[in-house]
Amino acid sequence: MFAIVRTGGKQYRVAAGDKIAVEKIDGEAGDTVSLGDILLAGDGGEVKSADGLVVSAEIIAQTRGEKVIVFKKRRRHNYRRRNGHRQSLTLLRILAVGEAKKATPKKEAAPKAEAAPATEAKAAAPAKEAPAKAAPAKEAAPKKAAAPKAEAAEKAAPAKKPAAKKAAPKKDA
């Protein structure tokens, strides 16, 4: 079975076992990603519905493409600019083209079970941090006593505005 997938603004025809280079996708080598934006799917010469299909792929490596030289020149003006560019790429190995329901629960079930204890720990941690955040708010109140200095600075700011207005008539002249 093959599918036409859109990722990074480009379209790729993929089948199980293919290796492709796409624009950078977050993840490390060995991670599994799913490409959900499927435009067309088929089996042999038949075109099938792409609804509910997901392409699962494994990241082989994060790499960069070949260097492209950008050279700008304007004749008779002694203007030359030379720049190089290397696009960040992700090498993918397509594992399967299939339905999302079959592929996703197996992959998500294990991380959720592991993430649940960490989530509980994170939920407990903000409760401890909340009183600590309240204390700096109380410290902010004494800073308001220093507000007259800030007001003096604000009064000095309008003095600069008339100077800017004086510059405007020079443009008309």
TrEMBL record:
The organism of origin for this protein: Sphingopyxis bauzanensis
Function statement: This protein binds to 23S rRNA in the presence of protein L20.
Annotated TM spans: none
Origin organism lineage: Bacteria, Pseudomonadati, Pseudomonadota, Alphaproteobacteria, Sphingomonadales
Keywords: Ribonucleoprotein, Ribosomal protein, RNA-binding, rRNA-binding
One BP annotation, GO: nucleosome assembly
Biased composition (Low complexity): 112-161
Gene designation per UniProt: rplU
NCBIfam families: L21
Keyword flag Protein transport: no
Basic residues bias (residue ranges): 162-173
The name this protein goes by in its record: Large ribosomal subunit protein bL21
Sequence similarity: Belongs to the bacterial ribosomal protein bL21 family.
GO molecular function, one term: structural constituent of ribosome
Basic and acidic residues bias (residue ranges): 100-111
GO cellular component, one term: nucleosome
Oligomeric form and interacting partners: Part of the 50S ribosomal subunit. Contacts protein L20.
Region listing for Disordered, in residue ranges: 100-173
UniProt KW Nucleotidyltransferase keyword: no
